[in-house]
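Because showing beats explaining, we let one protein speak, sequence and backbone structure tokens together, and leave readers to judge.
___
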Amino acid sequence: MKMARIPADLIQGTVEPGFEAVRDEFKKNFSKRGEIGAACAIYQRGKKVVDLWGGYRDPKLRLPWQENTMTIVFSSTKGLASMAVAVAHSRGLFDYDERVAVYWPEFAQNGKEQVTVRQLLSHQAGICVIDEPLTAEILSDFDALAAIIARQKPVWEPGTKQGYHALSLGWYEGELIRRVDPGHRSLGQFFREEIAGPLGIEFYIGLPRSIPECRFAPMQFPSPWEMIFRVDKKSKPFFKAMMDRKTLAGRAFSNPAGFSPNDRSFLTLENPAYTGVGEARGIARAYSAFACGGGELGITPKTMRALTEPVVPPPGGLFDQMLRVEVSFSLGYMKPSPEMVFGSSDKAFGTPGAGGSFGFADPDTQVGFAYTPNKMGLYLAGDPRLIALHDTFYKCLNGN
């Protein structure tokens, strides 16, 4: 990927006094770390303290990233989708430790009869691969999709191992919401009406056709040469597996096939695990609501305790069968671990996305954080652009 020179006047936004160093690092992402276009927003104690954007939303056409530019955030979508699940849990619509089949009887097929909601949301159910081919027509028909994923056979005994359900988690979460919600809403609709609307944010799980093209920042992908020679060393086993259709990762990421993340027609479909589109400030605002206790969304203390408590590893440990590294997952979120350090304590929870996006809540400091680039990075964890912003922010916070 050829780096575009970013004029200084394209870096815009505001920071509160004491957080100027975050703006400096944001600028360095463009001048030293190859950033093309991005936004970063951070709330602390419910107040927006960082709101930055800059670069090009489309480097080929030299179109600048605007204040209201949105981009796809890939798996960072999971965190927003899991907020919808948490709202449903707080309303007593399901229990994390109950069997999925209690709410969705057809799920009890091919060895999934005893899978709990907690195991499913923590990537332990063994259904990270969907074998039946998925098309745009199927993905837009929730009943047809539900029938297919209900039939899926686990690739390991549920509850014994962990393996990232990179694409499938969102479809299973979506059907769970449809089953327990009195209005049988889709997860995208539930999120829009119960979270995005009340918070006044722009983030979509299923991008409306009414959103104009001028607001969307297409993802800029690395060249095949960069994919081979510039992938982070710790990430190579996963990237290598993803390119082999015989591996779990290869099987998971090849279905559905033939879609581009920049295809607007594909983004209109609800894929709650990986095709969310929105503004960084919207993601940060949503995480801020949870970081401050979740009261404005009706999140109960019981739900917050579940989200913030330590991870309980499956018997097979935390080595992830898909990602090929040790990571910690709980209830739809990633938790801090040696491979993925974020927040100020192990109470933090969030989700990173392919390419470098990230959003998280840090309840101990009441911080909601989001970063959304449109240049695809080559790191599973530890993208230098993200680390620079995260670490500098916490240095500023501790200094204040």
In short: The two ends are 39 Å apart (CA to CA).
